[in-house]
Amino acid sequence: MVTVTSQISCSHCGAPLPVQPGEILITCSYCGFTSVVETGKAFEFEHSLVLNTIATGRAFEVVKGWMKNSFIAPKDLSKKSSVLEQNLVYLPFWVVSGEATSHYKGIFERVAPAVEKEGDIRNHYDWLVLARQDANFPTSAYHLSLEGEIPFEATKIDKNAKVLNSELTLQDATQRAHDEIGNLHQYLAKDRVDRIVEITTTFDVSSTYYLHSAVWFLTYGYKGKRFQVLMDGASGQIIKGDLPGEDFNLI
Ligand SMILES: [Zn+2]
Q1: What is the pLDDT of residues 34-53, one digit of tens each?
Q2: 3 state DSSP class of 8
Q3: Residue 75: CB partners within 8 Å, gap ≥ 6?
Q4: Are 42 and 213 in contact (CB under 8 A)?
Q5: How far is the CA of 27 from the centre of ligand 1 (A)?
Q6: CA within 13 Å, CB half, 181
Q7: Overall average pLDDT of the 147-155 stretch
Q8: How remote is the CA of residue 34 from the centroid of ligand 1, in Å?
């Protein structure tokens, strides 16, 4: 289904909001209110914000600190690299909370003779789903500092930051959380049995909300090549960083 919509009006303040293809929700950059693109009506879920704490002039300094602490980075990397691009982006997430239970049956082969074993894996999760269809973003490596979380407020967002909108419905996000947790439990079950015969996962969702969190996308240059770093804007933690010579060092 492709809806060709170029613009809707904010359901709160009436400001014109440009809609990109595929966007499900849109947050007004004037008043911070979120509307549902399809209906043009107000979005009824809780909407939170984790703010950036790193000044634009300091972002690359934080990256340099990470370079200095890296065991595999070239020794002169922090001195000889320079920042080529840096963008602060507020990424949209769905936070899906609930209790997930997997029941597994498998074969335990570490003893002779092998025995059949079954059991449950049960955990509570506040699972983070990136609300973009086609983003190359390592969500599983991203640990949100939910402590800095506040209700969404457009005026608190840096003027030069880009705010991306959700391309997933809540149903899409819940399904994705269910699938990802199922994969995690499958991985955990492999620790308990050597061969999984059957595993089923149920996910009992207790609450969901929408969240924007600050991430720096930086590109740096080193010896004529370009490398990308993703940094959590709230904590300054490197989410994912490319380093020169990684392939070489892995040999
Ligand atoms: Zn508005």
Answers
A1: 999 989 899 988 999 999 99
A2: strand
A3: none
A4: no
A5: 8
A6: 29
A7: 90
A8: 8
